[in-house]
Amino acid sequence: MNHKNYKEKRKKSSEFKSRKEYLEHELSILNFRKWRINLPFRDYSIEIEDIAPGIAATIGKVVMVTAIVAALASQFGLSPEFVAENVRFELLIAGGFFVILFSAILNPNANLSGTHGPMLPLIPIIAAAGGHPLALGILIGVFGIALSITKGGSKLMNLTGIGVRGGLLIYLGAMGLLSQIDKLEGWAANAGQSTISFVIIGLIILIYAYLARIGKRWVAIPLCSTIAGLVAYFMGAHFEFTTAPGLPHMNPMWWWGETTGWQMGWPKIEHYIAVIPFAILAVVMWSPDFLGHRVFQEINYPKGSEKVLMDVDDTMSIASVRQIVGSFLGGGNIASSWGTYMIPAAIAKRPIPGGALITAILCVLASVFGYPMDLAMWEPVLRVALIVGVFLPLLEAGMQMVKKQKDSVSAGTCIFACAFVNPVFGWALAMLLDNMGLIGDRERAKGMSWKEKLVIPGVMFVVCVVSLALAGQLPGIPRLL
């Protein structure tokens, strides 16, 4: 039995024929100490490839938290200055504390806690229902901890067949890709310079194709975002720095005051009741989100690197704790697995902790200096970052998974159901039909127990449908609560 530790197993990159072989060897020798101290250069390395996911994650964080906080702020009549202040606060909470403490030190098998983008369309409904950001954050955290303790996240992941996984990734990738292109074109048209979006998208297609050809897609976000920003600027697009250096308010009492911060005071019992269906739905939506990120590692990592794959339940636990603490402190973020970090990190064949440290440092620097936030939030930069760093890779990964005719039926059903309602409904329905053997691989279904075939997927489907109905997300059916 081999008892050598990481430092003893490690070899120099010069001993390998290619950089790819070196990175795959690194993945194969890692064995993190879960819920114990893991240190850089003792338990894992930091490589140049970690810089790209770090930059991608920081850009993604600024973009997504801004979107969530701005949507909440607009419902409560708060100013753009408040949004910038809260985003800055969230960057410190995420980067300066949670990323370093958990994903880089205590549990490198847990992905970073990012932002729950699919909840964005629900924010106006949450506000109209009398929701309170702190009440929503606390309940999401409580429900998430309950699911992680029962190992529900990993169980649902294992019960999701290949075809359903592929279909979910294809849908998320395609819809996100089209959405970002539309938003970039809309920005250019509103500025009276439609040619800019055409030139940027054309260049990005060529650059991304070349990076894929030479196996360097992990640099796509920083390279393509930089090129998009430079092209837009030199073609006459307006840009200016507006967020000056500084620190946000650190006192929760200020954020949850009656006349300061959110101007809502501390939540009351009616606030908790109002957000129950939305909190349930947020946690239900975690499973397909986490699944997609784990699948990305499985596709890009070599055999023998199972010990460094993302642990779904641990990621869920940390995201839940991060949600409760962040909301209590005054942050407006809604937490989830950090996709703009995991996807480029997996493509670069890097484990979680090295890039996590770089992400934490960049988030803190962006928060303190302010000006990098302006760059990350500029339309050509953020749209291209999301296109090449999230949605194109999702689409590609889904297409790679659907290799057999029986899997294509499951994938098609999943895409159809996603388009009919949303990805949560599509995933739950397709998983139930697939496990019952009504679509997809019937031999797989025959090897399952009734609990795996019907009980767990059936309960999940009912929970999803009821939560969607309560939140008013079923087409043609008014909100039930």
UniProtKB/TrEMBL annotation:
Coiled coil: none annotated. It comes from the Bacteria. The chain crosses the membrane at residues 86-105, 125-150, 162-181, 187-211, 218-239, 272-291, 352-371, 377-397, 409-433, 453-471. Pfam families: DUF3360 (PF11840). Keywords: Membrane, Transmembrane, Transmembrane helix. InterPro entries: DUF3360. This is DUF3360 domain-containing protein.
